[in-house]
Amino acid sequence: MTGSPEVTAPRDSPDGAASRHRGSRPRGATPAQEREVLAIACVGALAAVLTSGAPTGIWFLDGIYRALFVVVLTYAGSRARRWGLILASAVAAAGSLGIGLLIAFVAFATAVALVGANRRNRVAGALVGALTALALLRLQIHLFDGLSALVAAVAASVLVGSTWKVLHRSTKRMAVLLVSASLGVLLVGAAISLSLALTQGRRLQSAATTTQQAVDQVRKGHNDDAASLFADAGTEFAAVEDTTSAWWSFPARLLPGAAHNLRAVSTISSVGRRLTDSAADLAANVSYDRLRRSDGGIDLDRVKEYAPRVADADRVIQGSLTDVDAVDSPWLLPQLSSRLQEFNRRVSQLADETELADVALAAAPGLLGSETPRVYLVLLGNPAEARDLGGHIGNWAQVTVSKGRMTVDRVGLPGDLTNPSLEAAVAEDADVPASTLALQPAVFPQNWGASLDFGFDAQLSSRLYKAKTQTQVDGVIYADPYAMKALLASTGPITVEGLSKPISADDAVTFLTRDQYSAFTTGTAADKAVTDLVDTALSRFAEQTLPSPKDLGDRFAPLVKAGRLRMITFHPSDAALLGRTGLSNRLVRRDGEDLVAVVSRNANPSKIDAYMRRSSRVNVQWDPASGTVESDVTVTVTNTAPESGLPAVVLDNSFGLPDGTNVSDLALITPFEVESVDLDGAEVAVNPQQEGGLWRHTVRLQVPPGATQRLTFHLSGAVTPGRQYRVRVGTQPLLSPNPTTVRVRTRTGTMVGGTGIRVDGSAAEATLRGIGTTVVTLRVDF
């Protein structure tokens, strides 16, 4: 042919380089390049399936979404302008951490290299697009929920937008059709979601309200009404579940974000239905009030009947908690998220109660002598004369529980159990600490509460009791005057010989710790009166119809928490219940944590500790990096006793000091060594003893009547390095409250604490009242 020469459009060179003429762009790809781009898209899609990101909460659908996201950006990258590649990869790098940052950096570096070489390359662009997409799936921007998704959408739009102008018209038409169809489905899903939110939200709230009404009826003991309300709530929950899981709601499940909210509503309704069905069964068939026998004690046949039902309910609740936890998501609307958290809190509370009931019903037959009678030793402490456990042992009782009924075998005084011949044997026991040996427990059973570790006290007292009485006990119970007050609240007032009026619950604590010493002319008469009071109270309690479980819990649970009522048995099958309720209440240090316990021992000896007031403050400097701890423990002791006007057994002392002087051996139990001790600012001597891996630092105080003294221990030691600091605080249940305030300051970072802990930057503080042993856990954020 003749004429104008043939003009051929520029094409990519075999090595993938495009023409370097300004404004030129790749107009086609070789088959090899197309295969390489396809390979990158496939590998990227597989990586996307294996990564995180859950726009709908449906695992297979989320995998498809992630894979499509990578495929689209891979092909967009293969055709994108270089500025689009740089900008999108830069955004991904800016919002990434860890491996996501590494992926985004490789994408950005590749894009920059393309610009620096002034080259266009389909394969390199596809690689940048795929890597950018994978990095965007891993964005971690936490200014507010949904920001990561918003930034990813913007970056993806930049990349796709830079590609749009170079696409063929047919490709654009197909893309528009696909996007339009997808938007249509999503709009339908949005409409369905809105409709469900408007109609089912009110029904779900109504079901929750009915459930709460049913719970209130259970707590009032109206089981029949509760069962009916639970059934009504279950019907409402089931209706919501059926509606939100219907086939026609599927388009709503395709909508990112809305799918999570719909799934949460569906799950809550399903969980609500299961819970109310289980609760209705319990309300109709399990009445804890029917566990009580009219002739006293517990009906063990009914316990065994109830146990399987309660165990089934516990399994349902535990499974429900797992389901509720699984639907928590940052995609949830704030209103739904707050309701989900409240629902979770209530279910968790219900789970705790049901788990306790399950454990109690499983352990009750053994504890209550279902097959073999159980014999328990009851130690009645009196904090008017302080010992580590609370008070010296003023009375004791032996009780037997057989087939659910308790009988009182005998009640006595400490002098009945003295056994001086065993003193040498006790001294040879390597498990008995020196501080306990000093109190001669074999000679003076008053001192069987000589350790803050009730497990040790129970073992020692049971051995000495067996040696004296030839009776093997199955467990030991400790109770103080506040426990006697709770007992009298159940039995009613008791007449005591020699008193003008009966002793009631209102009078019990004052009578046992103060008035008994003034009401009788001799100690023998007072001892007989208190012994008769204890014997009568225990016998009446054993023979009467017990209070309801709720009443028992309301009366005795605070005493257990404060360490005023404790119980340990020597049967492993009981350990779960006693530990779960806090009855065992042991002071045991865990490796790597701190421990602080302040105890007073009366050294007069006298009953003056009824007039002692004590508080403690612990100031800690903690270095998370090294674990080093420096502590100042300040104990403030006030003696409110008068100089005169009370019996000699209260005001007298054996040291020739003025009447009303409180002489106490105050000890700090800690894993750390003491550096020095100050009494009102002046350094004083301290007696350190190591017992069971802990230090017992003791100082003798002589506090005149009406005076206050402050004793400060300066300590240093170390805990396990790391972001968490744990301190176990043990307190001695004295007659008056003895609060302990713990303040921890970190050398680096900001403190984070839980409920009841006040946080101020690098410091956190908690004040503990009415507790036996508790753990304060703090964390530091750097």
Task: Describe it.
This protein is an alpha+beta fold and 782 residues long. Helices cover 47% and strands 20% of the residues. The relative contact order is 0.06. The model is unreliable at 1-26 (pLDDT under 50).
Percent strand equals: 15-25%
Distance from N terminus to C terminus (CA atoms, Å) equals 79 Å
* Overall shape: elongated
Oligomer: single chain
Helix amount, in percent? Answer: 40-55%
Query: Would you identify the regions where 5 or more consecutive residues have pLDDT less than 50?
Result: 1-26
Largest sheet descriptor:
8 strands, mixed
Instruction: Compute the number of strand runs.
Output: 20
Structural class: alpha+beta
DSSP helical segment count: 21
Strand order of the largest sheet: 11-10-14-8-7-16-19-18
Averaged pLDDT, please?
86
Tell me the Rg in angstroms. 37 Å
State the main characteristics.
782 residues; alpha+beta; 8-stranded mixed β-sheet; 7-stranded mixed β-sheet; 21 helices; 20% strand; elongated; disordered N terminus
How do the strands and helices of this protein lay out in sequence?
Elements: H1 31-50, H2 59-79, H3 82-94, H4 99-116, H5 122-136, H6 147-164, H7 169-219, H8 223-244, H9 250-253, H10 258-285, H11 300-327, H12 334-367, E1 374-387, E2 390-402, E3 405-412, H13 423-428, H14 434-437, H15 454-469, E4 475-479, H16 481-491, H17 505-519, H18 523-543, H19 549-562, E5 565-569, H20 575-581, E6 594-602, E7 612-622, E8 628-639, H21 648-651, E9 662-670, E10 673-679, E11 682-683, E12 687-691, E13 694-703, E14 708-718, E15 724-731, E16 740-746, E17 750-752, E18 758-760, E19 763-768, E20 773-781
Parallel strand pairs: 1-4, 6-15, 7-16
Antiparallel strand pairs: 1-2, 2-3, 4-5, 6-9, 7-8, 8-14, 9-13, 10-11, 10-14, 12-13, 15-20, 16-19, 17-20, 18-19
Helix pairs in contact: 1-2, 1-5, 2-5, 2-6, 3-4, 3-5, 3-6, 4-5, 7-8, 7-10, 8-10, 10-11, 11-12, 12-20, 16-17, 16-18
